[in-house]
Amino acid sequence: MEKKNKKVIKKVVPKKEAKLKITVPAQPEIVEIIPETEKLAEDTKGVKRFYEGVGRRKTAIAQVRLFAVKPFEEEVGKVIVNEKPYKQYFVKLDNQQAVEAALRKIKLLNRFEVTVKVKGGGLTAQAEAIRHGISRALLVFNADFRKKLKKAGYLKRDPRMKERRKFGLKKARRAPQWAKR
Questions:
Q1: DSSP state of 29
Q2: pLDDT-derived band of residue 109, with 50, 70 and 90 as boundaries?
Q3: What's the rounded Cα separation, in Å, for the pair 71 and 94?
Q4: What is the pLDDT of residue 7?
Q5: pLDDT digit string (tens) for 2-58?
Q6: What is each CA distance from 169 to 148, 180, 181, in whole angstroms?
Q7: Could you tell me the CA-to-CA distances from 5 to 1, 27, 29 in Å, in that order?
Q8: Where, residue-wise, is CATH 3.30.230.10 in the chain?
Q9: For 51, 104, 166, 169, which has the most beta carbons within 10 A of its beta carbon?
Q10: Could you please report the per-residue DSSP string of 118-165?
Q11: Backbone φ, ψ for residue 160 (5° rounding)
Q12: Binning pLDDT at 50, 70 and 90, where does residue 172 land?
């Protein structure tokens, strides 16, 4: 009966300290300790739902989040790469088209807002890693897209990488120049 009148205060603490539930009898409130890893129901309200995918190409890694939004008039969706618009981040038209390719293939270019964190590699590898990540995130959104994306080759991680340099050679395969004398 006493719990009805008492206020419950929730504190988020590191996981190690979260084993105890402390009740202080002298005060009219109960202090409940919750581990950091658990999310409170109050915190999740108002948060946009997103679909996540990770894309890779050479040494570039892209973490992609797709936010489903109402369709808007513009043909091109809102794509943010490392906190910049993708057309500003990727100057070359080929790279811009690579970023759009998966959404354009599914014909949902204006239905998603995309945020990307990309690192490593060069700009072309980053653009292709983003395409790979968007494709994977689209599969989380709807598994029926798999057939089209797989046929286009957007779901496979491109395995081509620079070969490592071997001992005794100038580059991966380039031998030192041979001189007769």
A1: E
A2: confident
A3: 25
A4: 58
A5: 555 555 566 666 655 555 555 555 555 555 555 554 444 444 555 668 999 999 999
A6: 44, 18, 20
A7: 8, 11, 8
A8: 50-152
A9: 51
A10: EESS-HHHHHHHHHHHHHHHHHHH-GGGHHHHHHHT-SS-----PPPP
A11: -70, 120
A12: very high
Question: What 3 state SS string does 161-173 have?
Answer: CCCCCCCCCCCCC
Strands 60-68 and 22-23: unpaired
| Residues counted in the chain | 181
CATH topology of domain 50-152: Ribosomal Protein S5; domain 2 (3.30.230)
Residue 118's alpha-carbon distances to 54, 92, 166, in angstroms, are 10, 17, 30
Residue 113: alpha-carbon gap to chain centroid: 13
Please tell me the predicted confidence (pLDDT) of residue 63: 96
Coil, strand, or helix at residue 177?
Answer: coil
pLDDT-derived band of residue 108, with 50, 70 and 90 as boundaries? confident
Token reading at 161 = 């990488």
DSSP 83: T
